[in-house]
Design brief:
single chain, 227 residues, Metallo-beta-lactamase, Chain A, seven-stranded mixed beta sheet, 6 helices, 13 strands, 23% strand
Length: 227
């Protein structure tokens, strides 16, 4: 499967069928300032570079890598991009230590049987939310703890659709991750209030229109008896 356009300025550039089986789904946003949302596990860097090239980008065009949480299937590829191309990394301050220390348990690297070296994080996102300069349309980040303490979601409007990047909405929830299912349920209610037209999810792909986004999130709340 090749990288593809989701909506104007929004592309999926990686995932289990696009780069490597252990990768999450990850995305390129270009509203004038290209930003990568997550980076996969890092096992197929050449494929990622090729995918970007296919869309008319080089890794050096990317201005920022935003990591939605600290698990290796989302962060591993950021090490390659940071080391080889000098790309800065942003992650919530509550998940940053696991990345900066290369903690194999909190990053779930031990689950995947992978090694993770400590990684330098340029920007620690603090608090409940904020905005990221994405060019013509600002990108909003929202602290959505539950899966991990520092999980975030991102939302933006490309002029036609409100697009939500809600990675790992489905969980799972384990003590070794620092999970909190009650905090997760509250986070999901925040995402429902956004009334997004398109959801780009971390493992199950793209959901649209708004009714399908709502049904997907509510389905997991129902599964965990939190609706």
């Amino acid at each position: 499967m090749k990288p593809f356009k989701i909506a104007e300025g929004i592309y999926q550039v990686g995932g289990p069928d696009i780069t490597s089986p252990e990768d999450c789904c990850f995305f390129l946003v270009d509203m004038g300032r290209p930003i990568l949302i997550d980076a996969g596990a890092g096992g197929a860097p050449r494929k990622l570079v090729r995918n970007l090239d296919e869309l008319g980008y080089s890794p050096g065009d990317i201005k920022l890598i935003v990591l939605t949480h600290c698990h290796i299937d989302h962060i591993g590829g950021a090490a390659f991009l940071s080391e080889k191309y000098g790309l800065p990394i942003a992650i919530h301050s509550l998940d940053a230590p696991a990345v900066e220390e290369g903690d194999s348990r909190r990053t779930a690297a031990n689950w995947y049987g992978m090694e993770l070296s400590p990684m330098k994080v340029r920007y620690h996102l603090e608090g409940a939310g904020g905005s990221i300069d994405a060019g013509a349309s600002p990108m909003r980040w929202i602290h959505t703890p539950g899966h991990t303490p520092g999980s975030i979601s991102l939302c933006m409007d490309n002029g036609m659709y409100k697009i939500l990047f809600g990675q790992d909405i489905h969980g799972p929830f384990y003590a070794s991750f620092g999970s909190d299912i009650d905090a997760w349920a509250e986070s999901m209610r925040k995402l429902l209030e956004l009334d997004a037209d398109i959801l780009c999810e971390g493992h199950f792909g793209i959901f649209r229109p708004a009714s399908e986004v709502k049904a997907y999130i509510e389905g997991y709340l129902r599964d965990y008896d939190k609706l």
